[in-house]
Amino acid sequence: MNILVLNASPKGKNSTTVHTALYLQALHPEHTFTVLPVGQRIRSYEKDFAPLRAELEQADLLLFSYPVYTFIAPYQLHRLIELIKADGVDLSGKFASQITTSKHFYDVTAHRWVEENCFDLGMNVVRGLSADMDDLLTGRGQREARDFFDQLMFSCEHGLFITPPARAPEAERTVYQPQLPAAAKTKGKDVVIVTNCAPEDENLRNMIADFRAALPFDSRVVNLREFPLAGGCLGCFGCAVTGKCVYKDGFDEFLRTQIQSADAFVYAFTIADHYTQSSFKCYDDRQFCNGHRTVTHGTPIAYLISGDYRYESNLRMIVEARAEAYLPLLDRIRQTGVTCILVHMPFHMAIFDPGAAEDIFPQFPEIEHWYMAGHLMGGAMASQFASGHPDEIDGLILMGAYIYGDYPDENTLTVYGSLNQSVEDHIDYTENIVEIEGGNHAQFGNYGPQKGDAPAAISAQEQQEQTAEAVEAFLNRWIRTEKAPLRGFFSACRKPPRRPEQRESRGKRGRFGRILRDRMCFLHRSVGCGAFLLRNVRESSERN
Ligand SMILES: Cc1cc2nc3c(=O)[nH]c(=O)nc-3n(C[C@H](O)[C@H](O)[C@H](O)COP(=O)(O)O)c2cc1C
C-alpha cells in the first residue's frame, strides 16, 4: 500500500509525532511510506500545489501526523485542508487515518475535526492513534502504535470505516439582516471584536454590525485577515523562556496593544471546514507568545458564529467546553460552604502557568490558609507548586492525579475514578485515597470524552457529587484536627500498602521529574487541565 504521511507539525523532522510514523515505517517494509513535512512547506504549497497534488493522487492511504494545538490541529494543517479543498484534487475512496501526540487535552476534538474534513473529501476514515508525547519511549506505547497499524490495515482490507455524522441539510440561506434596536453607548468600556470576516461575507458583517449597534458600549473591530502574520506557531517554546515570539512580524505588540487591552472580547467568525478560515487558527496558536498566558485571562468573552452551528457538534464542544469545563464541579463544592477560585490557565493547560497561585494570594490578604486542587496535569502542577511552597499551602486535593514532587501524602486528598487505571498504578502512598467506583478520568470536568479514557459506569454528576463529598470531609477533618496528621482518615477506602519495589519506583519518578526540569522539558510532561485553588471560608471565619 502507498502510505502518504502528512507531517503537519511545524517542527518537521524534529516532530515528536512523526517518530511514530517512522517507527511504523521501519516495521513495515512491505508498504511504501512517503513522509512529507507539509507543516513546514505550507508557504510553498500556497504558491504551487502541483507537487503535493501528485503525491496525494498516488497515495492509497493518507496518514495525518500532527500535534494537538489549542483544542484542534495546528494552523498548518488547517491551511493544508483549505488548499486541498481549493485545489479540488479527488481523494474520494482513499483511506485516511491519523496519528497525534499531545497531553490528551482536547485530542478528541482534534481527531474529530480531521475526520470531519476527510468525510468532506469523500475518504474512507479509520479511527486514529492518539499518543502521549513520550509514549513511543515505552513498551506499552510501542505496542499501541503497532496495534493501531494492524487495525488500520485490517480496516482498510475489510472496509471497516467510521460512519460520517449527520450533515446539515441543503437549504437556501438567507443573509442575516440587522434587526436589533440600537442602544445608547456608555463610555469607559472597550469591547474588541476579533474576527476573520472576509470582504464578501455579508452575513457575518451584518451580524457584527447589528451586535455593535445593540451593544451599550463602544466597540472596535480587529480583522485578523488584515494582520500580516508571518506564519503559524512553530511550537518552539521560545516564548516560554523569553516571553517573546521568535517571529518579528509585530504580532506580540499587536496582541498587547490592540487586543489584550480590551475590557471584553467577542470572537466573530463564519464556520468553514468545521472550524473557521485558517487565519483564526493562526491567531489561536500564536497567542502562546503572550508569555504563555491567555489573552482572555479574567475577561468576559462571547462568540458571534455565522453558519449552521447546530450541525457542528465538534465545534460546539470546543466553544462550550472552553468556558465551562470545571464550573459544575466547583459549583457543587461551593455548595458545601467552600469558596472556590478557578484560575484561568493559558489554553486551559496548567503547565503554561504553574506559578499562577503566586498572583492569587496577594488578592486575598485576609486569608491565611489555602488548599490547592487540580485535575490531571493541573493536579501535577498543583502538587509541584505545593511541594515548593509548603508554608503557603496547607493541603492538596488531587483529582485523577497523584502526588508529583515531594508533598506529604498525609496532607493530600487523592480522588480518582476506579476506571482510571493509569492513575491507580501511580499511587504508591496510602493516606487519604478515595476511589470512586465506576468513575473515569474525564468526568471530574465537563469537557466531554477523552481519548484513552474508559467509559464511566456512573454519570458525571454522580462522580462530581462524590468528589465534593470527599473534599468536604477532608476539609472538615482538617479543621477539627488543626493540622493533625490525617492517618486513618478514609480508612474504608484506603488502599493496601504498596510493595517495597513499588515505593522504589516513586523515588525514580521524582528524580526523573527533576532531570526533566533541568532540561526545561518538564513543560512537555505536564500539559494538563486547569488547576484551581480552594479557599476554605469556614476555616478563615473561625480564625477571625
Ligand atoms: C501552541 C501549542 C498548543 C498546544 N495545545 C495543546 C492542546 O490543546 N492539548 C494538548 O494536549 N497538548 C497541546 N499542546 C502540546 C502538543 O500537542 C505536544 O507538545 C505535541 O506532542 C507536540 O508534537 P510535535 O512535536 O509533533 O509537534 C500544545 C503545544 C503548543 C506549542
Overview of this protein structure:
By secondary structure, the protein is of the alpha/beta class. It has three domains: 2-158, 3-Layer(aba) Sandwich (Rossmann fold); 186-322, Rossmann fold, CATH 3.40.50; 325-542, no CATH class. Helices cover 37% and strands 18% of the residues. It contains 19 helices and 17 strands. It has helices spanning 18-27, 42-47, 50-58, 75-87, 107-120, 139-158, 202-214, 238-242, 251-259, 278-286, 313-324, 327-334, 357-360, 377-388, 421-426, 460-480, 500-518, 522-525, 537-543, and strands at 2-7, 32-36, 61-67, 95-102, 124-125, 129-132, 186-195, 217-223, 264-272, 275-276, 301-306, 339-342, 370-375, 395-399, 412-417, 433-436, 531-535. The strands form three sheets. Strands 1, 2, 3, 4, 5 and 6 form a six-stranded parallel beta sheet that branches. A six-stranded mixed beta sheet has the order 12-17-13-14-15-16, with helices on both faces. Helix 5 links the parallel strand 4 and strand 5. Helix 4 packs antiparallel against helix 10 and helix 12 (327-334) crosses helix 16. The longest helix is centred in the last third of the chain and has 21 residues, at 460-480. It is globular and about 65 Å long. Mean pLDDT is 82; it is low at 480-544.
